[in-house]
Design brief:
The complex is a heterodimer. Chain A is mostly helical. Helices cover 49% and strands 0% of the residues of chain A. Chain A has one domain (2-66): Orthogonal Bundle (Non-ribosomal Peptide Synthetase Peptidyl Carrier Protein, Chain A), CATH 1.10.1200. Chain A has helices at 2-12, 33-47, 62-69. The longest helix of chain A is centred in the middle third of the chain and has 15 residues, at 33-47. Chain A is globular, with a radius of gyration of 11 Å. By secondary structure, chain B is an alpha/beta fold. Chain B is 44% helix and 20% strand. Chain B is built from 24 helices and 18 strands. In chain B, the strands form 3 sheets. Chain B has an 8-stranded mixed β-sheet with strand order 16-17-15-14-13-12-11-18, sandwiched between helices. In chain B, strand 9 (298-301), helix 15 and strand 10 (319-320) form a beta-alpha-beta unit. The relative contact order of chain B is 0.07. Classes of the chains: A mainly alpha, B alpha/beta. The A-B interface holds A 33-34, 37-38, 40-42, 44-45, 53, 56 and B 12-13, 16, 155, 157-158, 160-162, 164, 167-169, 171.
Chain lengths: 70, 556
């Protein structure tokens, strides 16, 4: 999980140790709709998973993404 | 670098990946880039890009074209837009992508696949564009996609979710390729590839294994060496000078070159061969002196790590190439060496004739040593100098020469095509000379830039390739220019010397030409020559120097 959050910090350009699984889209300035797409792409590439397209609009916190890595 | 990315598809994500390293301005999506081509875009002009990168997604571009005919029409139109874009932003470098077109799978199995034809037609269009515009270059999008594979490069999901045709990993790759491409604008091409022999050009050690024992051939374990030699020969044809630094007996080495049936490279492919027992760094230093090139022009290849380390230590300016752990990668390593150290956007005739020219120079030196006097030697050369004002077809060469000449360069004024264009349109003049003699043609090797102020000609730069140094070409050239300026009604020539780390050879050049110093400090000198007074100077010079020995003519 720590690895995941650090990875998210890097992509979202957030300060170290400021993100948790509860962090939501509207709390992070850089997390716009384009970033939403990038998060999906980066997470898929790094963890070798696939997030189905119809799930995408339901992903609003980092925890929602983390679920897929499990 | 300030890069403006133009594309017919959404490139927001790509721009985001690049903005850490470069200033990025983005115009993407349907039609955006075309408007910029058709009329000046104030925002883009304010951004003042150093590089415009046009990324064309082939599938999007040809989406509405049914037949190959329609595709061609669309591509022709696109070419016109690129032309206009190049016209709008003449001071920027323009990178234009090749295109990839995905085959249509819903068609009869035996129907021809047109996708490659469209991509190939765009290649033709691009060739024309790069010919027409010196500052327009290719961006290899199609190869990038082919190398990685379409199935992984394209992403349906990114397309449907965000109008981005490419997958995340693909976008990272694209960003990397862009970083590498713009880096190439800054890299200066090296000139000489210095090669080891044993276990580099062939497998085994010639001194121990003998000519029958070394591994070199068209199959099995000798094949990587032969294929590497083929790549090296290609480099030589791209203007890379080859040299050998090997710890061996020269006779053993010559025997391989002359008698081994599988050798691709021949002795005459090399500008210098050093096969002896001296330390390699000393031999490379000798090569630099012999070829009259700086050590920063050299790249060294050797399988032996100790040799690489020694060269690195003694000659830090020399680039030491990585040697692959697995010999099967040797040909690929050679290709990488070309990419890294010898890449050039455009190849001039000069590049292609380089090895030949260095060999001619060797013959000249032999004769010089044999001649009774220096003047006899000069006379025996039968030098011809052809002078001309800059013509369009010489522009590339003019730019190349002024940017790579270090020693005989009075002001070391560097310009790219764009700056030269601006210089000329502001009234600047550029005179070039081609030098040939009994041994061959040295090409366009002398260059003088000047502008006029009333009846004064101000020499902004004067430079000459080291290739023709020591043959009094500069005297003859300057005489001819002086004559011409006099005919143009010029009565005074102003000139400068601007010291650099490398241009010591011309420190007193203007003095030797009869110019008087009007102002000087440590690094900078200003001179003047009054042309009426120059008559007697001219006469004096022609008596004791060989400036009048050469034949000079103006190209009409």
């Amino acid at each position: 999980m720590e690895d995941f959050l650090h990875f998210m910090e890097e992509i979202l350009e957030a300060k170290k140790d400021t993100l948790t699984l509860e962090t939501a889209q509207d709390e992070v300035e850089t997390w716009d709709s384009l970033m939403q797409l990038r998060l999906i792409g980066e997470i898929e590439a790094r963890y070798g998973i696939m997030i189905p397209m119809d799930e995408v609009s339901k992903l609003t916190t980092l925890g929602d993404f983390y679920r897929f890595i499990g | 670098m300030r890069i403006s990315i133009l594309s017919n598809v959404n490139m927001d994500m790509l721009a985001g990946l690049l903005k850490k390293d470069h200033e990025i301005h983005l115009i993407s999506g349907y039609g955006g880039w075309i408007s910029c081509a058709l009329r000046p875009d104030p925002e883009l002009s304010r951004f003042d890009p150093e590089c415009l990168l046009l990324l064309l997604d082939g599938n999007e571009l040809l989406r509405r074209c049914g037949s190959l005919q329609e595709q061609r029409e669309e591509l022709r139109q696109t070419k016109e837009y690129v032309r206009q874009l190049a016209g709008q932003y003449p001071s920027a470098r323009l990178l234009v992508s090749t295109i990839d077109v995905t085959p249509d799978l819903i068609r009869a199995g035996d129907d021809a696949d047109d996708s490659a034809a469209a991509a190939a037609y765009w290649e033709e269009c691009l060739s024309k564009l790069t010919e027409e515009h010196g500052n327009l270059h290719r961006f290899e999008l199609r190869n990038l996609i082919a190398d990685y594979g379409r199935k992984q490069f394209y992403s349906d999901r990114f397309w449907y979710m965000g109008s981005i045709p490419y997958d995340m990993k693909a976008l990272h790759m694209l960003a990397d390729q862009i970083r590498r491409s713009v880096e190439r604008f800054r890299v200066v091409r090296r000139k000489v590839l210095v090669l080891d022999l044993d276990n580099t050009l062939w497998g085994g050690v010639i001194g121990e294994d003998g000519i029958e024992g070394i591994r070199l051939g068209s199959s099995h374990e000798g094949a990587p060496y032969q294929d590497a030699q083929k790549e090296i020969r290609k480099m030589q044809r791209q203007g890379v000078l080859l040299a050998i630094a090997s710890k061996n007996n020269l006779e053993d080495v010559q025997k391989v070159f002359r008698e081994h049936p599988q050798m691709i490279l021949k002795e005459e492919d090399f500008a210098a061969i050093y096969a002896d027992w001296n330390p390699k760094h000393e031999n490379i230093r000798r090569m630099a002196a012999e070829l009259n090139l700086g050590l920063d022009s050299f790249v060294f290849v050797d399988d032996n790590e100790a040799e690489r380390k020694a060269v690195e230590f003694h000659l830090p300016e020399v680039a030491v190439a990585e040697f692959p752990a697995d010999i099967a990668s040797l040909p690929a390593a050679m290709r990488r060496i070309y990419e890294t150290y010898f890449f050039t956007w455009k190849l001039t005739d000069e590049d292609q004739r380089k090895t030949q020219q260095y060999r001619e120079e060797k013959a000249r030196r032999r004769d010089q040593e044999a001649a009774a006097s220096y003047e006899d030697y000069l006379r025996s050369l039968e030098t011809k100098i052809r002078m001309t004002e800059l013509m369009p077809e010489l522009r590339e060469r003019a730019v190349q020469l002024m940017n790579k000449t270090n020693q005989f360069n009075v002001c070391t004024l560097r310009m790219d095509e764009t700056k030269l264009e601006a210089y000329l349109s502001a009234g600047g003049h550029l005179i070039l000379a081609e030098v040939s003699d009994r041994y061959g043609n040295s090409g366009w090797v002398v260059e003088l830039l000047y502008h006029t102020k009333g009846d004064t000609a101000v020499v902004d730069n004067f430079l000459m390739s080291c290739r023709v140094m020591g043959r009094n070409v500069e005297d003859a050239f300057l005489n001819a220019v002086t004559e011409k300026l006099k005919e143009d009604g010029i009565s005074c020539i102003q000139a400068f010397y601007q010291k650099t780390a490398k241009n010591k050879p011309v420190e007193s050049f203007w003095e030797s030409q009869g110019f008087e110093i009007t102002c000087a400090d440590e690094a900078h000198k200003e001179y003047r020559l009054l042309l009426d007074a120059a008559e007697s100077e001219d006469a004096a010079r022609s008596e004791n120097t060989a400036g009048r020995i050469h034949t000079v003519e103006w190209k009409s």
